[in-house]
Design goal:
169 residues; five-stranded antiparallel β-sheet; flat; three-stranded mixed β-sheet; alpha+beta
Length: 169
């Protein structure tokens, strides 16, 4: 293989690795801002439900006359559906756990779990950063796995770069 092609491949792998590392560091810093211990607690009101798989409640809270909205977050949602399960979706874990496990019917499913447990107008605790009230979470902090996944992708890119170099030099 010509050295120019090898140099191009190394440059591409290197750029991918740098972008992934910078992205992972940024995500990790953002994650650390959310979970810091210096949060102020307030009460928020459930005003609607998110449109993702969890249908988590969206809570509205006010700080210094400014209204903010934040949804109850989960680290991940595991949804298991079979045609033999009940039509109404059921929860297999505590709704305030950081991992949500749902079980439903794959043919026809009625997911009212969040509406049943957190009706519109109900209150939930919101923890926010006093200097940046938009940086907040509802009830408990749920770790994001995205920085870990991006870091693993960067390591795989570095390994691919090393293998390419060793094979073609």
């Amino acid at each position: 293989m010509p050295h120019t092609l090898l140099n191009i491949m190394m440059t591409i792998y290197g750029l991918i690795m740098v972008v992934l590392v910078v992205f992972a560091i940024g995500l990790k810093r953002r994650d650390n801002n959310y979970k810091s211990d210096d949060k102020v607690q307030t009460k928020g009101t459930v005003v609607k439900y998110s449109i993702n798989d969890s249908r988590a409640p969206v809570v509205e809270y006010t700080v210094d006359g400014v209204t903010y909205r934040k949804a109850l977050k989960y680290s991940y949602v595991k949804s298991v559906s079979t045609p033999f399960h009940r039509v109404k979706t059921e929860v297999e874990t505590d709704l305030l756990d950081t991992v949500l496990r749902l079980r439903g019917n794959s043919m026809v499913s009625l997911n009212t779990v969040m509406r049943d447990h957190f009706p519109l107008g109900s209150t939930l605790n919101v923890y926010y950063d006093e200097s940046h009230p938009k940086v907040a979470y509802v009830e408990r902090y749920a770790r994001s796995y995205v920085p870990l996944i991006v870091t693993i992708a960067a390591v795989i890119s570095a390994i691919a770069m090393l293998i390419t170099y060793l094979v073609f030099v």
